[in-house]
Amino acid sequence: MTAAPPPFELLPGAGRSPVLLHVPHSAREIPDAVRAGIVPAGEELARELDHITDAYTDRIAEAAAGLAGVTPWRFVNRLSRLVVDPERFPDGREEMLAVGMGAVYTRTTHGDVLRPDDVDAGPLVERYFEPYARAMTRAVADRLDAAGRAVIIDVHSYPSRRLPYELHGEGPRPAVCLGTDSFHTPPALLDAAREAFGETELDTPFGGTYVPLEFYGKRPEVSALMVEIRRDTYMTEPGGPAGPGLERLAAALAGLVDAVSH
Fold first, then answer.
1. Distance between alpha carbon 235 and the CA centroid of its chain, in Å?
2. Over its length of 262 residues, how does the chain's per-residue pLDDT go in tens digits?
3. Could you give the CA distance from residue 253 to residue 262 in angstroms, rounded to a whole number?
4. DSSP letters of 100-136?
5. pTM (two decimals)
6. Helix (H) or strand (E) holding 157
7. What is the DSSP letter of 36?
8. Which residues, in sequence order, are CB contacts of 235 under 8 Å at separation 6+?
């Protein structure tokens, strides 16, 4: 019997590296027990995974880690965000609840039913969300202890055309969107990202970045930036193969890692 894959994985980097590449949305894996509670099935579910998955961002992060002068650490979600979304607030303050996409999704990218509205999210949050949050918190704490600071670079992708679930998709859709936080994204980190990636915009069509709640708004030594890569720059949409843009983006991400590692 084949063992189930781990729900997430911390991949070691250099002991002195402050950088943690966070890859939360690259996987398509859904455990059978979770899949049983999801309404779409077969080709319909496969299409939804094509739209919602940040395909190949784990490969971009892996290639960047191999190219970087100081190898960053990587924290990679091995389960689909249709299981839980580890970057959403698991309570009523999450704005994406307006489109059925809190920590546990009830709607698809196109507004169709994914789970019943009255689903009990508690077991999924307890089984998947909370262990992920604890492990990510430990990973950041370890970088603080080892390097005196932590730099979380959140690696995402987004579609070239707006999908119905997007709350703020009316603005520009640059090759790379940089999501920022007023407390945790210092100017030097932004400057390094602009230098590394070239064509960028701030917080459009997606804004903000991920910091574990234990540090959020409290520890300026924890800096963070979300890197949202427009999918048509490195793959065939939706859900198609990767192209040569993947290597170029990995090199750019490695450049950002090196710039903030020293």
1. 17
2. 455 668 999 999 999 999 999 999 999 999 999 999 999 999 999 999 999 999 999 999 999 999 999 999 999 999 999 999 999 998 888 999 999 999 999 999 999 999 999 999 999 999 999 999 999 999 999 999 999 999 999 999 999 999 999 999 999 999 999 999 999 999 999 999 999 999 899 999 999 999 999 999 999 999 999 999 999 999 999 999 999 999 999 999 999 999 999 8
3. 15
4. TBSSSB-B-TTS-BSS-TT---HHHIIIIIHHHHHHH
5. 0.96
6. strand 150-158
7. T
8. 55, 56, 241, 242, 243, 245, 246
- Tell which residue, 164, 193, 160, has the closest CA to residue 179: 193
What does the alpha-carbon distance between residue 111 and residue 154 come to, in Å, rounded to a whole number? 26
> Dihedral (C-alpha) 144, 146, 149, 154: value to the nearest 10 degrees?
-80
Residue 208 · residue 180 · CB < 8 Å: yes
CA distance 103 to 121: 8
Nearest of 24, 41, 34, 7 to residue 121 by alpha carbon:
34
In 196-254, beta strands by DSSP E: 200-202, 222-230
Strand partners, 200: 176
Tokens, residue 99: 């489109």
Measured distance CA(253)–CA(201) in Å, rounded: 16
Closest by CA to 256, choosing from 201, 198, 216, is: 198
Bridge partners, 153 (sequence order): 21, 225
> What are the phi and psi torsion angles at 257 (to 5°)?
-55, -45
10 CB-near residues (< 8 Å, 6+ apart): 73, 74, 75, 135, 139
